[in-house]
Inverse folding.
């Protein structure tokens, strides 16, 4: 064989990732979780769901981002105020609890984990949820007391 030809040597293909590797970074161990975001617009509601195995770092980053989105977009519809946003937040809390039980992930060389960012309560958007909640409390209190 000609030493200059590419057939002279073979390159081993990259090993496939296990099916339970983190969907973002490929790390192990993972948990099969569902992360949700809910947007309650004035007349309609919109939900976003991410399913998959996530390591603790990438899963927490997704939960923080989608929970923050729910806190500032999830309350602007009456049905969202009562059901949509609270259920979404409870489901994300359940996913968070699953991730807390995992040991620290073992990163895969050449792949980067999702940045955690700031905790939810240190993001200004999270406090937008107080506006509709205070308004709803005020309306209910006014209706009961008058």
């Amino acid at each position: 064989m000609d030493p200059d030809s590419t057939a002279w040597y073979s390159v081993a293909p990259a090993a496939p990732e296990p099916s339970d590797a983190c969907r973002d970074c490929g790390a192990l161990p993972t948990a099969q979780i569902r992360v949700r975001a809910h947007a309650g617009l004035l007349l309609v509601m919109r939900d976003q769901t991410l399913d998959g195995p996530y390591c603790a770092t990438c899963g927490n980053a997704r939960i923080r981002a989608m929970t923050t989105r729910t806190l500032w977009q999830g309350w602007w519809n009456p049905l969202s105020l009562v059901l949509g946003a609270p259920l979404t937040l409870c489901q994300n809390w359940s996913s968070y609890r699953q991730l807390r039980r995992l040991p620290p992930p073992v990163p895969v060389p050449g792949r980067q984990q999702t940045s955690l960012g700031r905790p939810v309560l240190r993001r200004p958007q999270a406090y937008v949820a107080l506006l509709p909640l205070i308004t709803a409390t005020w309306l209910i209190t006014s209706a009961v007391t008058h």
In short: The chain has one domain: 20-145. The longest strand covers residues 31-40.
